[in-house]
Amino acid sequence: xxxxxxxxxxxxxxxxxxxxxxxxxxxVRCRLLEIFGGMYVDIDIIALRSFKEWYDYLxxxxxxxxxxxxxxxxxxxxxxxxxxxHHPLFVHYKNMSHTLLSRKFTNKTQNDVLQWxxxxxxxxxxxxxxxxxxxxxxxxxxxxxxxxxxxxxxNPLRPINESVIQALNMTVPYLMYxxxxxxxxxxxxxxxxxxxxxxxxxxxRARAVHxxxxxxxxxxxxICEIIPKNLTHNEIQLIKSMPIASINNTLPGYNHLTxxxxxxxxxxxxxxxxxxxxxxxxxxxxxxxxENLKLFLSKQNKSEPITxxxxxxxxxxNGYHSGGASYVLSREALRRFYLxxxxxKSQCQEDGGGEDIEIAxxxxxxxxxxxxxxxxxxxxxxxxxxxxxHFFGNFPDWLGEYAENQPLSVSDQ
Length: 413
Description:
Layout: H1 2-19, E1 27-35, E2 38-46, H2 51-60, E3 68-71, E4 74-77, E5 90-92, E6 97-99, H3 109-132, E7 150-154, H4 162-169, H5 184-187, E8 191-197, H6 205-211, E9 219-224, H7 233-240, H8 257-272, E10 278-283, H9 290-297, E11 306-308, E12 311-312, E13 320-321, E14 327-330, H10 331-341, H11 355-365, E15 369-370, H12 387-392, H13 397-402
Parallel strand pairs: 8-9, 8-10, 11-15
Antiparallel strand pairs: 1-2, 1-7, 3-4, 4-5, 5-6, 10-14, 11-14, 12-13
Helix pairs in contact: 2-3, 8-10, 8-11
């Protein structure tokens, strides 16, 4: 309840009073957030002064690094890689403090904000708990949806001016359902994800997927064309921890995405046809909000020959889904795809062409339909472009020609 959440905020302030001396943090920010009928408390520790502690364990874990630089009134911790596009994690200014919630974790801008939010939840916060050697209640730390919400601040050193409050309220559009907020019928939707990647992204993008959203699928695996050589011990251990499907006959490069996807679906059918309700094909630069997808799929029929994704109109009768936005096959759709590809009379292309187009042509040839996935407000659930483009409406001309539904930005809604 809201009263309980407000009590949580009070308890959190008390906890931080005990654990963080006043000279170490300008203030602790707590927010009571309400979204999609759920409610939770969000916490930010703003401008920790003991940057050396953060730097030591973050660089050890290889999350951020290479750019520890005291600089006059400003102290910052840099991002992955040398100081290109320097986005500090926490920054302290002499007369004010704020958090910059943006960083480079993958080499695609569209994932930066979401990957950072999820990284904060999955890795940094638990490690910060360990650093403090106190057991703050984990459910109160980044365990739910983050959006613009009510700010409650407490500042032991100085008052916070209005411009800082406004900056803090421009938060990450991180729409997450904690599993505890999901109804049983929603959480019971069994999802298998396969992520296609290139060899040179295994230690970067694939790692981001592995350490963030993929673990909330019921099972997931990577389709990798080749394992890199000359790896360090830590890199070898990382790869050993990643579920890489044992699929032969893949060919390197973007020109063979159709082959990779086809083999991926064959692997899913041969090993897991009866274990899962839905099968997701994603790329290594995809960010999937699994809980929201499960909520949507809980209202669909897994026994129908149907797929869901961002719908394009041209090239394929009844349309196809953008491969870059990821797409989902029902159990029956997967079965028909597998049988079609093992039929000597099949019209399905083995390789080449546009992967999303060729997969869709094959599916349509065996009666699999492209489902509708927009919500009641005509908003898309799958997004093929950069996050910023969808947010601000920077749509290329071709999208309006290809898209089945009129593209909408946040300002349009």
